[in-house]
Design a protein that fits this description.
With about 170 residues, the protein is mainly alpha-helical. The protein has one domain. Helices cover about 65% and strands about 0% of the residues. It is built from eight helices and no strands. Helix 3 runs antiparallel to helix 4 and helix 3 packs parallel to helix 5. The protein is flat, with a radius of gyration of 20 Å.
């Protein structure tokens, strides 16, 4: 784990405590558990972040922060993963994948649509696609979150076992 690099990049607890906006969270934000790099905090944060990335509203950062603070998960991992997976470059393919998964599950036809920012489009153009889209977002969220959490958990444990074996075989 690149612990030294992370310590250099991450802000200090003193900076977080004195930041004007972050003062609202009080001492909860400087909890060492939120910044610790250990298996439970990192793998849980990674799984939750993959699940949060499929939320179809622009509230990813807020939800990621609430989840990390509630379950005391690694904050940099949650935010880094959410922003890496769901950003302006990946948002369209991510949501299109969710829509296609929803159409497969509902066995409905794939509708061609063009987005126009207007109330008329929201009223008539969104009608045939919202059910498969939301179902696909839910299914992809659960599958991605569980797969990411279990996959990283297995990789982390495998790496720890490998290091343990190499350390004890050398002795």
């Amino acid at each position: 784990m690149p612990r030294r690099l992370l310590k250099k990049l991450l802000p200090s607890p003193h900076f977080l405590q004195n930041h004007r906006v972050l003062r609202l969270f009080g001492d909860r934000l400087i909890d060492p558990q939120l910044w610790a790099v250990h298996r439970r905090a990192v793998t849980g944060a990674f799984g939750w972040a993959l699940a949060i990335a499929f939320i179809p509203l622009p509230v990813h950062s807020l939800v990621a922060g609430i989840v990390a603070l509630t379950w005391r998960l690694n904050l940099p991992t949650v935010y880094g993963t959410v922003w890496l997976v769901n950003n302006p470059l990946t948002m369209v393919p991510l949501y299109y994948l969710a829509y296609r998964v929803g159409t497969l599950m509902l066995r409905s036809p794939v509708h061609q649509f063009a987005f126009h920012l207007s109330f008329q489009w929201l009223e008539y153009g969104l009608g045939p696609v919202w059910r498969p889209f939301l179902l696909g977002c839910l299914v992809c969220s659960v599958v991605a979150g569980l797969t990411g959490w279990i996959g990283l958990e297995l990789v982390w444990r495998w790496q720890v076992r490998r290091r343990y074996r190499t350390r004890h075989c050398a002795v």
